[in-house]
Amino acid sequence: MTIILTNDDGIDAPGIQALWQAVEGKKVTVAPQQQFSGCGHQVTAHSPIHVDRRSSVEYAVAGTPADCVRLALSHFCQKPQFVLSGINAGGNLGVDVYISGTVAAVREAAMLGVPGIAISHWIKRPLEIDWEVAARWTSRVLADLMQRKQQPGSFWNVNLPHLEPGSAQPEIVFCKPSTQPLPVEYRVEGEYFYYVGEYGKRDRAAGTDVDVCFGGNIAVTEIFL
């Protein structure tokens, strides 16, 4: 089994290193050279894309997460079993899937007929992510999801909770994605508008991925094209 790893935080981010640890088998990393957080499904079609081949299994791409998947599937690993994206530093819950570069990578894979799983880690400030714990949780989730048959044109979106050290192991909960908007709040200073919406204050209707993740469990949603 060959698996492509990518993200939107950049190839040197701790999250993709944790994802590498969580995945067994043959892996090929094809990830952006720099951060593309929040880029959505942006692609590069009118300018060349530089690729730095760091090794036989690691490619740093001067492009977006969707670019990375396109190049990976067309040139670097044409027949992988999965595309995995993450582990993103920050949640990608509910309507975030339309904004997220992390999720866009596996959406692009689904468009090209390859199963994909996006993994993100909600940040509950002032806590900091323990990437070793995140890797262990991700390994648990992947052991489950990679055995399930994915429907054509679908992919999995996974969000890890942010728990206090020493907390009980979170459960894996399959749930529906929230459709409520993010807080839209700005501070105005002259001609400049600064976004000040608080992620943790978003709507968390019962049973949605936001509610499950904020409640301390691993939220898994199946997303369709």
Could you describe the 3D structure shown?
With 225 residues, this protein is α/β, with parallel strands linked by helices. It has one domain: Stationary-phase Survival Protein Sure Homolog, Chain: A, CATH 3.40.1210.10. The protein is 24% helix and 27% strand. The chain has helices spanning 14-22, 65-76, 101-111, 131-145, 209-214; strands at 2-6, 26-32, 51-55, 58-61, 82-89, 116-121, 154-160, 172-174, 186-189, 192-195, 218-224. A nine-stranded mixed β-sheet has the order 3-4-2-1-5-6-7-11-8, with helices on both faces. A two-stranded antiparallel sheet has the order 9-10. Helix 1 crosses helix 4 and helix 2 (65-76) runs parallel beside helix 3 (101-111). The longest helix is centred in the middle third of the chain and has 15 residues, at 131-145. The chain is globular, with a radius of gyration of 17 Å. The model has no long low-confidence stretch (mean pLDDT 96).
